[in-house]
Amino acid sequence: MLETIAILLIIGWVLGLVSSYTLGGFIHILLVIAVIVVAIRVIQGRRPL
């Protein structure tokens, strides 16, 4: 579930950059949160994605 959310956030972020349609800083904050969560899972020894 967490991996799906992270992937969707990354896709949304890239689409926002490419199409010039952004939600302000919101999508960037969500992307940073997703990267932090994945990093924590890697540090804990779980499979990242």
By DSSP, the count of extended strands is 0
Structural class category: mainly alpha
End-to-end separation in angstroms reads 10 Å
Radius of gyration: 12 Å
Mass-distribution shape:
elongated
SSE string = HH
H/I helix tally = 2
Query: What is the total number of structural domains?
Result: 1
Helical content stands at over 70%
Low-confidence stretches: none
Question: What's the mean pLDDT score?
Answer: 75
What share of residues are in beta strands?
under 5%
Main pleated-sheet profile: none
Q: Could you characterize what this model shows?
A:
With 49 residues, the chain is an all-alpha fold. The protein has one domain (2-43). The chain contains two helices and no strands. It is elongated, with a radius of gyration of 12 Å. The protein starts with a helix and ends in a 6-residue tail after the last helix. The chain crosses the membrane at residues 26-43. Pfam families: DUF5670. It comes from Methylomonas methanica (strain DSM 25384 / MC09).
